Amino acid sequence: MARSSIIPSSLSDGLVFTAGAFLALLIFLGLYSFLSPTPIPNRLFSFSPSFSSTSSHTDDTYDPPDETFYDDPTLTYTIDKSISNWDEKRRHWLKLHPSFSGGRERILMVSGSQPYPCRSYHGDHLLLRSFKNKADYCRLHGIELFYNTALLNPSMNFFWAKIPVIRAAMLAHPEADWIWWVDSDAIFTDMEFSLPLDRYRAHNLVLHGWPELVYKKKSWCSLNAGVFLIRNCQWSFDFMDEWASMGPHSPDYEKWGKLQTSTFKDKMFPNSDDQSGLVYLILTGKGGWRDKIYLENEYYFQGYFAEIVSRLEDITERYIEEEQKGPAVLRRRHAEGVFLSYAKERNAELGKQKGADTGPTGWRRPFVTHFTGCQPCSGDRNKVYSADNCTLGMYKALNFADDQVLRIYGFRHASLVSADVQPLPFDYPRSEE
Ligand SMILES: *[C@@H]1O[C@H](CO)[C@@H](O)[C@H](O)[C@H]1NC(C)=O
User: Fold this and answer.
1) What are the backbone dihedrals phi and psi of residue 319, each rounded to the nearest 5 degrees, phi first?
2) Range of the domain at 70
3) In a domain, 170, yes or no
4) CA distance linking residue 237 with residue 241, whole number of Å
5) Is position 218 within any domain?
6) Angle between the 234-244 and 162-172 helix axes, to the nearest 10 degrees?
7) Whether the CB of 193 sits within 6 Å of ligand 1
């Protein structure tokens, strides 16, 4: 399907190759089982569904003339200058805008892609579908979405580009408690799952990762830097300053590359990268960042696509079986506006069934499927993946997710690889027995 051009292996190819190869090795060695996710808890919601829409309570027509950080001419959105006293500045703004505070924690999802058209044949369409997938998830969960297509700091390119964007987003959204960075090639494959924010109460940064691999194996792929939650607070500005100081914008960029390569024996390219930088900051413990970083691995906070894609059809079948034999709540039609209340009931019901695990051996839908190394836009995918692995895999994951959305609108795809859709009869899927 995708006709990708023959281009010398890029840095990011190398990056993802080792991540993929390392995971493959882990699975091969059977190490994965002790690191693998445990069943997802039945209680996935820490808030009442009546608070599901953040916008319904906020007054966006009111901005008092009182001075705030926005009126400070020395404050910059760029990464050149540090931000100080942010917690106080943010609190002051919230005090002036009371309708934006209180209720459940607010999340701003941030994602983005390059400012130019994609080189790969399917690239722009896959990005559009991926964007739609994020927009769908956000609409269903009352989350705001900022999708950026501008390179805010030209020297902070590739995987470093997100830092300037997240920083600017924190300033533009003082009402957001969390910024949720999601790579453009990460796809939500369980629309009904909500982040267990309660679990992260004492932390400021949440990543998918394995402490054993960080501390014992000192591996640069002990965590994934493509999807994370970062709290909108001073700690995060300070942390990102330090993180960015390892990037191409910094005079110490080369030094960091050498230090990372000597620290991580499995790092196979010389340049400093954001993911190694993160592991380094956790590992060395300098700055005390570690205490505020949560490494999540109990569900697919983000999951490696090669471990997921081939199972999507079976997962679909299993859901149909459970919905056929389960209670009526699993089949009842409902308005999109009350989606979360059904999601909560469905999660509780399905979670009771045997093997209801989101991990590599369970049949529950994986939350996020991340196509690391597929580079759908440039087409410069990692050589270990075929076009089918990546392009077909992405379409499958996108349709798998879209079926969960289309169901609310009364339709589903004829199959995970089909663009055709079929109307759903009343009491589906029992009516199909
Ligand atoms: C790629 O696809 C082939 C053929 O379907 C499959 O055997 C292989 O495991 C896939 N590789 C990955 C990394 O998903």
Assistant:
1) -65, -40
2) 25-317+360-432
3) yes
4) 6
5) yes
6) 160
7) no
Taking the centre of ligand 1 as the mean of its atom positions, its distance from the CA of residue 418, in whole angstroms, is 20
Q: What is the pLDDT of residues 13-67, one digit of tens each?
A: 333 434 444 444 443 333 333 333 333 333 333 333 334 444 457 888 899 999 9
**What CATH number is attached to the domain comprising 167?**
3.90.550.10
- In tens, the pLDDT along 402-423 reads 999 999 999 999 999 999 999 9
Whether residue 107 has its Cβ less than 6 Å from ligand 1: no
pLDDT at 11: 34
Tokens standing for residue 362: 């369970």
Residue 119 domain flag: yes
- With pLDDT > 70 as the criterion, what percentage of the chain qualifies? 87
Q: Which atom, in ligand 1's list, is nearest to the CA of 393?
A: 14
Mutational test site, ligand 1, from 310, 371, 372, 391, max ligand atoms within 8 Å of CB: 310
Inter-residue contact 277 to 260 (CB < 8 Å): yes
Chain centroid, CA 177 distance in Å: 16
Task: Decide: 299 and 367 in contact? Cβ < 8 Å.
Answer: yes
Q: Which pLDDT value is given to residue 56?
A: 54
Whether residue 348 is contained in a domain is answered as no
Its pTM stands at 0.87
- pLDDT given at position 45: 36
The reply to whether ligand 1 has any atom less than 6 angstroms from the CB of 386 is yes
Atom of ligand 1 minimally distant from the CA of 385: 13
Q: Is the CB of 82 under 6 A from ligand 1?
A: no
Q: What are the tokens at 210?
A: 């394995």
The radius of gyration of the chain's CA atoms, rounded to the nearest angstrom, is: 22
Whole-number Å distance, alpha carbon 216 to ligand 1 midpoint, is: 30
d(CA 303, CA 371): 9
- 179-190 pLDDT, tens per residue? 999 999 999 999
Q: How many domains does the structure of the chain reveal?
A: 1
Report how far apart the first and last C-alpha atoms of the chain are (Å, whole number): 35
Q: How far is the CA of 397 from the centre of ligand 1 (A)?
A: 15
Rounded to the nearest 5°, which phi and psi values hold at 93? -60, -45
